[in-house]
Amino acid sequence: MELGKRELGRTGLHVSKLGFGASPLGNVFGNVKEADAIASVHEAMRCGINYFDTSPYYGDTLSEQILGKAIKSSNFPREQYVFSSKCGRYGDGFDFSAKRVFRSVDESLQRLNLTYIDIMICHDIEFGSLDQVISETIPALLKLKENGKIHFIGISGLPLKVFHNVLDRVPPGSVDVVLSYCHYNLADCSLVQSLPYLLSKGVGVINASPLCMGALTELGPPQWHPAPTDLKSACTSAAAYCKSKGKSISKLALQYALVNDDISSTLVGMATVDEVRRNAGAAIELEQGKNLDLELFQEVDSILKPAKNLTWLSGREENN
After folding, report:
1. Residue 97: pLDDT band with limits 50, 70, 90
2. Percent of the chain with pLDDT over 90
3. Residue 19 in this model has a pLDDT that exceeds 80
4. Mind listing the pLDDT tens digit for each residue in 199-213?
5. Catalytic-labelled residue, pool 51, 58, 90, 184
6. Looking at the DSSP assignment, which residues form a beta bridge with residue 15?
7. 58 is catalytic
8. CB contact set of 115 (below 8 Å; sequence gap of 6+)
9. 73-98: average pLDDT
């Protein structure tokens, strides 16, 4: 049984429902051995994952470098895989200028060992001027699209309102993909309210952080997690409940995110072969007709309910 795929908006691309989030390759969640990281990418390809997402921001270009080494050492046909990277956010800060975008794409192509990048995403646009993103960043990406260095254009951010702001103001069809994170998971499903609008704009929707950046795991949220205390506490309680029942909150959270057909792909951070196999196994269970554990879901939902849809400020005040 293979992993299922969905069409990504109007791009013509078909992406695996489970996508490979490459931020852990940049040691964002702890140090990972290079050999293990490369092996995880190759295992993902073998398991049927065909969508991989990275950014020069993750590990200050380390994630792109490691993914590039994995791509170079693989023997998988390029045309069967979809790779996205990002521009605008870097280890030294934010820069959404056209000049930086042109340089950024060339640098990413080199690090990734690719001749083109399928999707180039403006990274966390709430930290910049949306006027600049609209008038400078996206036009620069459109030029790169014309010359074949990138094939499609996306935007990402935490506050959902930034997607509405940009999509209402750019020429129709100039943005192909929206990447939303931490807004479609067991603790926060506020993305649902924006899905009809996003689909009406013809954009493909990618959901990242179905585990709420580690909060919906047995290990719990990392120290740097920006969520309010009430949300982190509720997630910790829900994880403990699942463990007491011999269940995995991570598996429940992933399967919950994967069943929504309006979301083309759900990105999960992975960096080891075991993580890949575990996540792919959870996705394949759904393909085989196994349903979400509704009894467990209802219990967890009741634990998370007091903190449901709590979020945090991200970027400029006017963009939240």
Report:
1. very high
2. 96
3. yes
4. 999 999 999 999 999
5. 58
6. 6
7. yes
8. 109
9. 96
pLDDT for 76: 87
Tokens of 181: 């994170």
> Which of 211, 319, 214, 191 lies closest to 264, judged by CA?
191
Side chain identity at 232, as an amino acid letter? K
Which residue shows structure tokens 């190759």?
42
